[in-house]
Amino acid sequence: MKAVLQYRASTGFRSQLEAARPDWLSLAIVDEDDRPAFAHEMADADILLHVLEPVTAAVIRAAPRLRLIQKIGVGVNTIDLDAARACGAAVCNMPGSNSQAVAEATLMLMLAALRQAVPFDRRTRDGQGWRMSADVFDRVGELGGRTIGLIGFGAIPQRLAPVLRALGAHVIHTSRTRRHEGWQPLADLLARADVVSLHVPLTDETRRLINADSLGVMKPGAVLVNTARGGLVDEPALIDALRSGRVGAAGLDVFAGEPAPADNPLFALDNVIVSPHVAWLTPETLARSIHVAIENSRLLRDGGTLLNRVV
Description:
Blueprint: E1 2-6, H1 11-20, E2 26-30, H2 35-42, E3 47-50, H3 57-61, E4 68-71, H4 81-87, E5 90-92, H5 99-114, H6 117-125, E6 147-151, H7 155-166, E7 170-174, H8 186-192, E8 195-198, H9 212-217, E9 222-226, H10 235-244, E10 247-252, E11 272-274, H11 283-302
Parallel strand pairs: 1-2, 1-3, 3-4, 4-5, 6-7, 6-8, 8-9, 9-10, 10-11
Helix pairs in contact: 1-11, 5-7
């Protein structure tokens, strides 16, 4: 049985994979940019280990032996599910595998945005740390005493909420169900929250959930954090709100177009903290992911019931 990982894997990730790989599973690792090598390896692949590069209908049709598309992570919006279904390829994901990492990264972005971490770092390195305008300190703040609004309340925000409360924040959330204390309608959450953090999948319903209208409802000077999917945010509208001060700051790990180009206007703003869609990426997440991927490969080989099957 053969699996193909389309990803620029680090030395550590490769070592983890090789140490865990059973003898009956062969593995080819292909850089996302090496299209000829990917096409060659997929010609006889049974399993595609998918990270971020879109799995299109053309990719699926060009892999006649493909039986499983295993998402390394949770979101399957980058996979053509209809094409997979039509070709008889199962699609599975890994809910919970990256929850700890993303929860911690979300907290990091909240703190970095509130405390102006990147501008302070830059000015300090330039020898200007004590020469900044005193007014910059009017724009920093603490999480304690603030209201944090979590849009979505799955595994990641449920991990994050008690940490925020322990720091003295008041936590509210919105989701499709009202199972937990602190639920608010979306409009009320946007109006009340000092920090708004996104934790929902990208669907037709949630695409551009944060747009000019919703930004206009937000508390003036609020912080927006997105570690979910870039398509949840109307980036031009967010840029306008950040420039005007309507939104005080943003912490973003994801973007509408990825990889985000150097000329993205968000990158020119001092009140924006960014990272390149790596909130999920830790050795611990990868270890959990490898375990699930190998177990599903074994189940596929043995005709068992696949874990976390989406299609």
